[in-house]
Fold this sequence. Notes:
Distance between the termini: 55 Å
Shape: elongated
CATH topology of the largest domain: Rossmann fold
Helix content: 25-40%
Number of helices: 10
Strand content: 15-25%
Number of strands: 10
Radius of gyration: 22 Å
Order of helices and strands: EHEHEHEHEHHEHEHEHEHE
Strand order of the largest sheet: 2-1-3-4-5
Oligomer: single chain
CATH architecture of the largest domain: 3-Layer(aba) Sandwich
Number of domains: 2
Amino acid sequence: MAKPTVFVTRRLPAAALERLQARCTVRLWDSDDVLPRTELLVRVAGVDGIYCLLTERIDGELLDAAGPNLKVVSTMSVGYDHIDVAACRARGVQIGNTPDVLTETTADLALALLLAAARRLPEAIAAVKTGTWGPWQPEWMTGTDLYGSTVGIVGLGRIGAAVARRLRGFDCQLLYSGPRPHPELAGSVAATYVEFEALLAASDFVSIHCPLTDATYHLFDSAAFAQMKPAAILINTSRGGVVNQEAL
């Protein structure tokens, strides 16, 4: 039986590519640059599988360009908002993603960003580099305390809960919002479920961990920002589309 043919849309780590090549005939876009859309539509023709990144839009046009042999699309990401799920379902194409592989890593990053923003670390580093760091002043670069603050987590899933676990050591009051309560996750971190508007009004820090969907697109808009504390700090380690950048 012939090996299935898989098109890979970006250069992969050698170990991953070797695993694919052992089982499949691999067509590879051997570059770190994004494959142009017009070229992508040509290269997927006749393949059995597509292994893509977030930069590739998998929609009806691409699925039709691939043709009836296509059985699976797999993305090297947790999120799959770049894939038209309905279009895949209509054509019987399975979808694969990589849930949980970066849960703890992303939670570490969220905490790093919280602390960096609170303690004004980028500004302080810039002052050192530009030579504007002067004599000690009592109120210069003081920032704000994460310890003892109120932190609102928008989306208490795997990553949101991992961030909450880290914040327990900072004696924070933890609030969370989402479509529904998650007592199985919230109980161990003493997080309280509140409506989105109440979270915005009460939080000193807001950390976003929801997926990008029709319901969450531009969830943070002018109305949301107007409800936040004037000195609140917003951290987004989810998709950029959750935040209306112009409103921000």
